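Section 5: illustrative case.
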């Protein structure tokens, strides 16, 4: 249902999104339940290889974490991102050509938006990139925009969508902001190895840190092209269908875009499952950025920093493959 009039029809995009969030959290029962779940969720901090991870025990996320994303299961269910199947209470803000902003009724962040293509087309990073760069810019950097690959945490891999959360809301993003502020000689001492500086600054995590590729620049087209190229190189180092496996973030601060992605090799860790000896954990972008979603209290209570490190190690590119990616990106 399209939103007309009221507090969400005027003002800047970020203000309209804030207004939509307030309206929907006050009036939409499903979202109230999801938001209550988030507010009541317990949390624990871990240090995982020098980076902070906040585990969030949020039972409201159980459906999303356990979502079946095989072709037969997808074909058997109505797509919950298509306008004709969305709940009547879910309102939207049109965004650029062919997109709408929706509130995520099972949020991990407060606020947490899903930005959805109007057409039912599959989840792919290349068509998502311009919207991600645009949205981070058009909200004045208020929101960081992120993407889950079709086999990397997306619960609707058949319908193109990205998500938006308040900028700086994930531990990894906060650590990255600090790293990007290093100046001069100090910039060689950090946990990012910078490989080139022009036209887009490009770097990778140093060995031992969570593997990620980083790009920053002031020119939107150059950043988009450099990101597209880095993703293509990932596809050469670790080929995958229908696209190179990754979770990707875009932030916009002080006139610069920062794009970073976590290259993946697996959809879920070997411990994944609903059984008592298994762990219901299905890492997506938010998890890799340090907000680890554990819907089951038993998993939440027993998980250790070593377990989190193994889960990340199993779903992310191996150190050997990541070293090859680094070498190829250095050119
Ligand atoms: Zn759809």
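Designed sequence:
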């Amino acid at each position: 249902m399209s939103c007309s009039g009221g507090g969400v029809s005027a003002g800047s995009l970020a203000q309209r999104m804030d207004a939509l969030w307030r309206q929907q959290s006050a009036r939409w029962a499903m979202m109230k339940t999801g938001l209550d779940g988030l507010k009541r969720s317990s949390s624990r901090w871990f240090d995982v290889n020098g980076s902070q991870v906040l585990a969030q025990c949020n039972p409201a996320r159980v459906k999303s974490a356990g979502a079946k994303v095989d072709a037969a299961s997808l074909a058997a269910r109505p797509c919950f991102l298509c306008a004709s199947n969305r709940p009547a209470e879910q309102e939207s803000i049109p965004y650029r050509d062919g997109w709408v902003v929706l509130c995520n009724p099972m949020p991990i962040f407060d606020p947490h938006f899903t930005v959805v293509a109007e057409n039912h087309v599959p989840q792919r990073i290349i068509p998502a990139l311009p919207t991600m760069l645009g949205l981070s810019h058009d909200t004045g950097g208020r929101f960081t925009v992120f993407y889950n690959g079709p086999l990397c945490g997306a619960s609707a891999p058949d319908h193109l969508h990205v998500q938006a959360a308040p900028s700086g809301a994930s531990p990894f993003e906060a650590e990255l902001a600090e790293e990007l502020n290093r100046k001069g000689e100090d910039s060689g001492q950090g946990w990012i190895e910078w490989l080139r500086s022009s036209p887009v600054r490009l770097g990778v995590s140093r060995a031992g840190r969570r593997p990620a590729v980083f790009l920053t620049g002031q020119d939107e087209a150059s950043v988009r092209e450099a990101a597209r190229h880095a993703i293509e190189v990932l596809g050469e180092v670790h080929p995958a269908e229908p696209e190179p496996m990754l979770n990707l973030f875009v932030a916009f601060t002080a006139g610069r875009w920062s794009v970073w992605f976590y290259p993946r090799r697996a959809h879920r860790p070997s411990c994944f499952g609903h059984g008592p000896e298994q762990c219901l954990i299905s890492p997506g972008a938010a998890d890799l950025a340090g907000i680890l979603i554990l819907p089951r209290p038993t998993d939440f209570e027993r998980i250790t920093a070593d377990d989190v490190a193994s889960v990340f190690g199993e779903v992310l590119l191996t150190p050997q493959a990541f070293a090859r990616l680094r070498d190829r990106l250095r050119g």
